[in-house]
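Quick illustration, no need to memorize.
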Amino acid sequence: MQQDRLNKVESILVTQARPTDEKSPYFDLASKYDLKVDFRSFIEIQGIAFRDFRKQRINILDHTAIIFTSRNAVDHFFRICKEARMEMPAEMKYFCITEQTANYLQKYIQIRKRKIFAGQKTAADLLELIKKHKNEKFLFPCSDKRRNDIPGFMVSNDLRLTEAVMYETVPSDLSDLTEVFYDIICFFSPSGITSLFHNFPDFKQNKTRIAAFGPTTAKAVLDAGLILDIEAPMPNAPSMTGALEIYIKKANSL
């Protein structure tokens, strides 16, 4: 922490949607330190047009298994299928990153009659399941900006995978925030930094502290010429709220 940037914190902007769980640690933090904590997603998910999907020359029914890592992937996969007037065969297998994602499939298919495999929480869990089905032809519905863990694993294990970009991450319209100042802004992806400068090309950090979750987000902050004041996860702060509290305790006690 730079000593000259340890100024009192009274307001925080979290660049994500407001939590639906009222027991969120962000609300505990706000109450404990008498803070104003606002939420505003800096990015939006938009489905790509069917005509643009077709340009990828992917035949979905050439595959025997689908990998889903989010509800967005599920929604846009079945949207594309509907626009293509395509029904999934009963023998299609579905590999989902969590039980919640697997259960979400019932919005589109009768999950009792399908072959569905679910990890516990992380991509690593899912990859262990995938390894047991080496003969499948996997389709991976994804965003234009995606992590490399699954494609990288598939390549290194000589498994057949087709990436299908079905949705994209775009900056939100933040024009109503032009006159709003926050002591801390929290970012969770490089896309959030992209959105900041898309909306405010003349943004000056000044005394605003920047918090970043994850190494790729931290790198994006620094690459943009910003000062990174708060970083998570760290050994003593595995969560964003934990990292914020460590900083606030120190800054607000001066």
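The CA atoms of residues 137 and 160 lie 5 Å apart.
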